[in-house]
Q: What sequence folds into this?
């Protein structure tokens, strides 16, 4: 998995898409979850260090959050696949999002980020569910956009990464040129080449 990527290397374009893309489906570990939260700056490195010790200090809370995160991810993968196929969404999948939204209290706040002001969700701390709040919120926005959302899956059938197509023409085909686009071009070129030769 591509967890060593820098934040700019995340290709989903939406937090909830990166959550499905970057973590192994359904059985990711506590460490992998924390790495994702750190990578996407949902948690600071200090918070990351504290949370690393949680499975020893409070195994019940850590276990509950991990299983909630896995359930959310599995539901999101099903939701995004259904949205791509223009199929209806099962209530249970959507409920996994609502469950996180419902128990996470907080507010939006303007915060400085990369030299500009950005609107960010600030959760009321207390429980651990706030760690999943921004992911659930991002997914909820995509679902609410419905069929109009430029949600895509990479054209490389072996890839399977989701992305939000922000391109001007809305005809982006690849998760990234370097990862899949160029590989496809090279394959097409060698196919043409061998056809000419035969
Ligand atoms: Zn790809």
A:
């Amino acid at each position: 998995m591509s967890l060593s990527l820098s934040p700019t290397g995340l290709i989903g374009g939406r937090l909830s898409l990166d959550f499905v893309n970057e973590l192994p489906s359904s059985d990711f570990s506590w460490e992998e979850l924390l790495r994702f939260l750190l990578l996407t700056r949902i948690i600071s490195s200090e918070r990351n260090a504290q949370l690393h010790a949680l499975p020893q200090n409070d195994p019940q809370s850590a276990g509950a959050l991990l299983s909630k995160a896995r359930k959310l991810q599995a539901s999101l993968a099903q939701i995004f696949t259904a949205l791509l196929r223009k199929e209806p969404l099962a209530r249970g999948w959507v409920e996994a999002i609502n469950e996180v939204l419902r128990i996470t209290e907080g507010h939006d706040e303007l915060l400085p980020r990369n030299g500009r002001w950005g609107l960010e969700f600030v959760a009321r701390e207390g429980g651990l569910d706030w760690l999943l709040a921004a992911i659930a919120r991002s997914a909820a926005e995509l679902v609410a956009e419905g069929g109009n959302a430029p949600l895509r899956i990479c054209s490389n059938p072996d890839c399977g990464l989701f992305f939000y197509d922000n391109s001007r023409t809305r005809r982006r085909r690849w998760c990234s040129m370097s990862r899949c686009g160029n590989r496809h071009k090279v394959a097409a070129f060698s196919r043409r080449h061998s056809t000419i030769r035969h």
Notes: Helices lie at 15-22, 30-39, 45-52, 54-57, 59-84, 91-103, 130-145, 177-197. The longest helix spans residues 59-84. The longest strand covers residues 106-113. The two ends are 39 Å apart (CA to CA).
